[in-house]
């Protein structure tokens, strides 16, 4: 199965820039389907990025984040070739994770 996470991490000197795109419906629970019924809430609750086992970015999200969220941030302390692990867990208990090498 293909991961729902696409990530690019690039080190430039002491700064590593991370860009990630996550495929997820991020339903708020306030939108109706074609039959006029509310679509139950389904959204990512925790998003985590860890470099070499150390958390570098952790987000606690709610239903206000849009569909297929895009995240961009930078951090210090990594170098080219280090592992960056990305994981998320949603309100229905589903999760996904992937690992990328910093280029």
In short:
The protein has 103 residues and is mainly β. The chain contains no helices and seven strands.
Question: What does this entry look like structurally?
Answer:
The protein is mostly beta strands. The chain contains no helices and seven strands. It has strands at residues 5-12, 15-22, 44-51, 54-60, 70-76, 83-90, 95-101. A hairpin with a 4-residue loop joins strand 6 and strand 7 (95-101). The model has no long low-confidence stretch (mean pLDDT 96).
Provide the residue-averaged pLDDT.
96
Poorly predicted runs are none
Distance between the termini: 24 Å
* SSE pattern, N- to C-terminal: EEEEEEE
Major β-sheet annotation: 4 strands, antiparallel
Work out the radius of gyration: 15 Å
Q: Please give the number of β-strands.
A: 7
Overall 3D shape: elongated
Lateral strand order in the biggest sheet:
4-3-6-7
Q: Give the fraction of residues assigned to helices.
A: under 10%
Helix and strand content put the structural class at: mainly beta
By DSSP (H or I, 4+ residues per run), the number of helices equals 0
The proportion of residues in beta strands is over 45%
Q: Keywords, please?
A:
elongated, four-stranded antiparallel β-sheet, 103 residues, mainly beta
Topology:
Layout: E1 5-12, E2 15-22, E3 44-51, E4 54-60, E5 70-76, E6 83-90, E7 95-101
Antiparallel strand pairs: 1-2, 2-5, 3-4, 3-6, 6-7
